[in-house]
Amino acid sequence: MVEDRALGLAWLARAPDDFRARLRQAAAAGEGCGPALRRLAQYRLDALQLGHLAAALRAAGPDARKDLTPLRLALLSDATTGHVAQALIGSGLRHGLALEVTEAPYATAAQALAQDSALSAAELDVVVVALGARALPPWPEDPTDTAQAADWLQRTLAHFRQIVTAQQRAGRQVLVQTVVRPPERLQGSLERRLPGSPLRLTAALNDALETLPGAILFDAAALAETVGLEAWHEPVGWYTAKVPFAPALLPRYADALARTLAGIRGLARKCLVLDLDNTLWGGCVGDDGRDGLVLGQGDPLGEAFLEVQRTALALRRRGVLLAVCSKNDPELAREAFATHPEMLLRPEHISAFVANWDPKPDNLRSIAAELSIGLDSLVLLDDNPAERGLVRSALPDVAVPELGADPAGFPLQLLEAGYFDVPTLSLEDRVRAEQYANEAQRRDRQQELGELDAYLRSLRMVLTVRLFTAVDRGRIAQLINKSNQFNLTTRRRTEAEVQRIETSGELVGLSFRLADDFGDSGLIGVVICRRAGGGLWEIDTWLMSCRVLGRRVEEGMLAELARLALAERAVALAGSYLPTPRNGLVRDHYARLGFSCAGDRTDGATHWRLDLAGWSAPDLPYVIERPA
Amino acid sequence: MPVSPETLQALETVFRDCFDNDALVLTPDLTAADVPGWDSLRHVLLMVAVEQRFGIRFGTQELAGLKNVGDLLGLIATKQKG
Question: Do B20 and A20 touch (CB under 8 A)?
């Protein structure tokens, strides 16, 4: 059998040597085999074993799926998809999913645009867009050229956007896989400095994928980083069989992807149940007493246990419930938990605290009942292999990660298992997804009409400009604090500071809204200008939502700013570009608007000036409204 | 290149796990055509399993040159020696 270590998946128990015999036994149960197959999926299985499991599920027929959550998906990739499909179906069982996979391999980014006939006919719930770096447009000729880099990013992002919206129009949820960068670096440390290097461009692209309308990200790039790019990439496999990454990583990849799909179906777990002795602290409080426990700075083991507690606390901040389940004297356990000076976790962090001498499975059942959640929402973190084994066999729905002997490894093992991974955080994101759906319809028009202005005119866009008012304050502050890419100076302000601009004599704040035939994009642009004296207006802040890129909105923003400045007899506008790792997009913003460069600094900051005498606004394909 | 009985048995186990067939017997002239389920997709995983079982790595040209199980056994023996 395969080397266990090579597989990773350290949180899963080692597969039994007679796995295939057990699989045959489970499959013999016929249509009742669903739960048995799911139990077998809980082991650390290699790609071949996952394939056998997938075959057993297929052979068992539709009734085997009745205890599982069905999901029909397509794998759209530039690589071979057969291995991933099989490993994914097997791994899906681990997470309670009955997956049906349609494969669309060997697509280039451009080909993936056109709906493949197999894909367009299929009834699908989710499309996974899994493109490798080889599928992207060729890297820019000159990696030092920021304009070429920005152009590559816009074009590549447009490819992804088109694929995503085409699938969304067909009513499917889209899961976009981040691109794993090639491991080869042409000139070592220099690559990170060059805006057009593969290293920088894949990072910029992956960040920008976040802005895709309603798409959910599957972060393969982060996974590849975790296992190491040298372990991930397998050129021999690519050249011989277009295999996307080292086949030894199939189980790891498939588990992560299956988990993401489970998250989309709402199957992420909700509660971390913590053992106490040798899980949250070193020693047993019953034997060593509270003061004999190992916990705290200055001791290697004590620091390791602190990190376990820190991890639990961090998960709680993300919305995961915490519970305690310990075989202990109840008073001793509670007292130590509440009063040990080094504890990071305290009773107020724990939603259900159970310490007694009863068997853990009984306690877990009562914890689930007390919190009104299912057993399948629980994860038990317990250092004791005997307790883990007992809970796994008594309560197969509870997730029990395997833990190494050393608590130093607990946090990573728990987190890499991804039990609590969710695709999006908030209701806000879901509302935004609806706005993005409108955006998808707009892009359909773009393909029909072709030329940009004609298309923009057909949208009947209305750009509404207002001075800062109380009503817009919250949204203005949000844009100021969240915009990273289309943001010239990245100056953050509190809501109180935004409020002061409303009545300031020195600062002028303008907010811009955009609406069109397909809907209201809301507030999408902010400009803050300082009346600097001597007829000069200095642009302190200029930012825009990436959702309205490519609509000539920034030209309208300039037109309004200039109109206001001219009305006060200003003679020039001055602006700066302060570079950050994320705003390379706007390096040439002022140049594109007709400003002249007035100087630059060694850190890449540039200064610009527009003389207003003789300047006039261009014809814009939309209406600007200025309510009083 | 002589192949040890241990190597042959180990390889046979890899094949049996790969094809889920405990009755499978390896002979030097066995090819993909003789084994149900031995398609190009499965072949990739089979070669990875062989690499992992014997702690060796196959190169692009080496993989292309394999015609039957005999070739594979020979290649394994060479790599184990070197």
Answer: yes
Cα–Cα distances in angstroms (integers) from residue A158 to residues A63, A110, A487, B61, in the given order:
42, 10, 20, 38
Cβ–Cβ of A243/B64 closer than 8 Å? Answer: no
For every residue of A180-223, which 3-state class applies, written as one string?
A: CCCCCCCCHHHHHHCCCCHHHHHHHHHHHHHHCCCCEEECHHHH
CB spacing of B53 vs A2 below 8 angstroms: yes
Please state whether A501 falls in left (phi above 0), alpha (psi between -120 and 50) or beta: alpha
Residues in chain A within 8 Å Cβ distance of B22? 20
pTM assigned to the model: 0.70
Strands A271-274 vs A321-327: parallel, antiparallel or unpaired: parallel
Distance from CA of A2 to the nearest CA of B (A): 6
Residue tagged 């080692």 (tokens)? A14
Nearest-10 crossing angle of helices B5-19, B40-54: 140
With CB atoms and an 8 Å threshold, state whether B44 touches A83. Answer: yes
Q: State the Cα–Cα distance between residues A59 and A53, nearest whole angstrom.
A: 10
Chain A closest-CA separation from residue B50 CA (Å): 9
B26-70 pLDDT tens trace: 999 999 999 999 998 999 999 999 999 999 999 888 988 899 999
Which structure tokens are listed for B59?
A: 């190169």
ipTM of predicted assembly, 2 dp: 0.90
- What angle, rounded to 10 degrees, do the helices at A250-264 and A220-227 form? 150
What's the pLDDT tens digit per position in A270-293? Answer: 999 999 999 999 999 999 999 999
Q: Which two tokens stand for residue B9?
A: 């048995």
Do B17 and A80 lie within an 8 Å CB cutoff? no
- A-facing residues of B in 39-68 (CB < 8 A) are 40-42, 44-45, 48-49, 52-53, 58-60, 63-64
